Every structure is written in C-alpha cells, then in structure tokens.
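Many introductory courses stop at the sequence. We go one step further.
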Amino acid sequence: MVVEDIFRVRFRKSLQMLAPGTDFRQGIENVIQAKTGALIVVGDSPEVMGIASGGFHIDCEFTPARLYELAKMDGAIITNHDASRILRVNAQLDPNPNLPSKETGIRHRTAERVAMQTGELVVAISQRRQVVTLFQENSSFILRDIATILVQANQALQTLEKYRNVLSRDLQHLGGLEFEELVTTGEVCSVLHRCIKVLNIAAEIENYISELGREGRLVKMQLEEMVANVQEEATLIIKDYCNTKEKTPAEILSGVRRAYEDDISDSLFLMKSLGLGTTSAHLEQQAAPHGYRMLNKIPRIPPAIIENLVERFKVLSRILRATIEELDEVEGIGEVRARSIKNKNGLMRMREQFLLEYMV
C-alpha cells in the first residue's frame, strides 16, 4: 500500500473516531458549549512524549465529562491511540518552531506543528470561534455539523448516480465492441476514465460517511449499491488491455486514481500507464482484450482456469472461435465446463446481450 493510501485509511479512521454519537465527539461538543477551547493529541508515541513536558499523568478512562472538565486547564490533553484513555493533562507541547505553519493562533499553530512532527492526530478547539480543526501529518480538516455533511453527501450521491448511469452504458458499449473486435485504445481509456471518476466520487462520499458515524447508514447503503463491482470492472479492464508487466492491475488503478485527484490525468496519461502508446495517434489504434472481464462473468469459472484459457488463446476473439474440443484441451477445463463456456449459457449468450445493447 502506497503512502497516500495509508494516510487516507488513517485519516478516515480519525474521522470515524470523531463521528457524531461517539464519546469523543460528545466530549468535544461539551467543550464547545462551555466555550473553553482545547488542544488534544490522540497518541502517546515516543515522538509525542518527547515534545511534551509538565502537566499531570492521570491514565484514566476517557469519558465526555472528563474531557470537558480537564479542558478547563490551559495545557494540552494527551490520550492513547484510540482515545479510550486520557493519559496526560495540562501538558506543554514544544514542537520544532522551524516547521512551517499557516495558522495564526498559538493553539492551532502548535497543533499543526505537533501533527507534522509526530504524524499523530491533533484536535484543536477554538475558544472564540467554536470551530474544531483536525491536524494529521501535513493535512488539516474542519469538522462540520451533521446537517451540512448530509446536504453535501446527498449532492455527491446525485452526482455519483449520473456518472454511474453513464458508466453502465459505456461498459455495455465496450462489451459490444469487444465481441465485434472494434475496440480502440481511445474507447478503453474513455471507459476507464469513467470508472475512475465514479470510484473517486465514492471515496469522497466515504469520508462523509465516516464523519456522519451512525447517521451515515442510509448514505452508506446507497453508496454500496451504486458502486458495486465498479472497482472489479476497472481492474479487469486494465488486466484485459495492459501491455506492461512493471505493475499489477491494482497498482496501476491506484496510481491513475491518485493522478485524477491531482488533476494531472487524461486519456494520454491512461494510455501511457497501460503501455498502449505515447501519442494521440495511438488512441485510434485497435486493441484486443485478453478476455478476463468477460470470462469472469461466466458462473463457476475459477480464476486459475481463466488464467489457463488466456495463456492458451491470448485474446477473447480466439476463445470465442475455439471449438469445444480445443477448450477441453486446456488444463482444468473438461468437456462440461468447455460446453458451459462455449454454449448459450456462456460467451454466446453474453455476445448476444452485449451486441443487442451495442446496436441500440
């Protein structure tokens, strides 16, 4: 797992820890209502303890009431990594003053530098503005109320639904082109582009779900229904057309998704990532799928058998033209499985369905 993905997982866990309905969130709400402010470090790593001095070691169970009472003191509160215990209170933090900071207030500037120096989650609660800011590594995030998050989550779901509907049509169209042997590199990149957009919107909604906690159950159900099999389809498309062995299909997908997040990706970038060419002229060249995506749609065909089929016939068109006897010769197939691949319940049925959609 790459560094960016590790941070994304850690940050999502931090949001879940602070979701509405949790003890941590309730404690923060109590501090906001009291208008006292607070600086809370979630984690007692050696890096944190190395910059902390003074205060009191209490090592007690975390409760909202205790957080509220202990926040009345001026210093920082330090908890363990899952915020189940309060370890130290009224501590003075002394992070590296040379670390850059965009914050102006002393509390928030200290919080940002502690997060950058230690990598731990630091929560800063503004006494005057009553705003809760999370700092972790080099990132910051302002907690929002449930109503605001729900509005944004629903807007994102509406956008996702539109993209998902278009993607469904694109996948059907690509299937028709594959059976007609008319696929171009540009078509592959276009469908993969749509898959990545759907997956990245879904990742944004997952952050909303983490923020919402128990209030996000309905949003989560809608999201799971909309993005079912999209990542698998994208991975199989890459596996079908990828012309490089330097990375696995999953690694390529992860890389291009991050590029889209940074707005540096386009069809040429996708084509280069798949090893299919380097110039716009290559977008018009024909591309032949190996057949992984279509073979995975046939029931009761194990991945090892699919690998044997692709190893033997190389591309989908040759698998389609193969006789039952030729399929039977592939290791692990057998006559019964060969007939299920070849006949009306296998590739022939799929070919009719995809071509029907393709012609509409």
